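Q: I have two molecules that I believe assemble together. Could you output structure tokens for the complex as a whole instead of separate predictions?
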Amino acid sequence: MRAAAGALAALWFASAAWAAPDARRSGFDDMTPALQSMQRDDAQNPAMLGVADGAALWQQAPGANRPSCAACHGDASVAMRGVAARYPAFDAASKRPITLGQRINACRASHQHAAPFAPESDALLGLESFVALQSRGLPIAPPADARLQPYRVRGEQLFKRRMGQLDLSCAQCHDERAGQRLGGATIPQAHPTGYPIYRLEWQGLASLQRRLRSCIGGVRAEPYAFDAPELVELELYLTQRAAGMRVDAPAVRP
Amino acid sequence: MARALITCPKTAQRGEIIEIRTLIAHPMETGYRAGPDGAILPRNLIRHLSCRYFDGHDDVEVFSAELFPAVAANPFISFFTTATASGTLRFSWSGDNGFAQTERVTLTVT
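A: Yes, here they are, computed for all two components at once.
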């Protein structure tokens, strides 16, 4: 009888787990209503200034006899729809995963024969946010590419590895203590749904890599350089962890 | 790259109160902060925003604001005005280091 009850309970838990709503929360869900309305309203969202930059760059040829983004890709609202939702992706040319920002720079080098944009430059963040905007509302869809798997596993290991003078892993805050407070702020679950973000504290657009570097510096570890393989691997793991959540780029964050 | 985003209805009825929202890219450097090398960053602020409404006959200032160091980067300012006649709204920001930017929006009043 007890065994039967146990089995029933197990079944109930299993079905409850199956039917349970998604317990994942994006950074948007943890914000105050005032900040949420700031993000929802494109007239108030300061990230739209970067998007306006990106829209202009999309149309602009980098030089004589060199194509603009639009010359090859056409209308971004069609060609770029869903693109940001599936990055980082495997790049056949360099035989490793690359982020959306690296893809833009790779395209710039191979097709536009132009110098790459510097990391965190206004131009790169503008183009990234313009491309990301075309995926707004779509679910994050990491590619089911077997070649990405070893990198994703390394990203997960890095997420769970203690680092720095504070000897903390990403997971200790963002998996185990998400929702609790760190200083005055709610610890988010760290789902990268809205990058590039306009972070109010930084008063500007920022990529996920800047966010990661700042966090790594926060636990007093040496941050990886921009576009370092470790940061791309972390991003791969984080997008897998957030798979199916809605893209809300370009987001506002406190 | 100086940019501004202005959100305002394209058409309005005579006498209607319309909301105008402005957002402009600007660092709004206070002049009190130190840079990475410890030296004070020079002040770089937008000092003034003015909106003039030209309806074909009169050119009236319908809104103006003075801005100070406590205003955040990329200032967002919204205000209301009454639509009187079809015309142009002209927004002028001015500030330190000779900063000046002007944007125009046309409004059709029926």
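A: One point stands out. Chain A touches chain B through twelve residues (CB under 8 Å).
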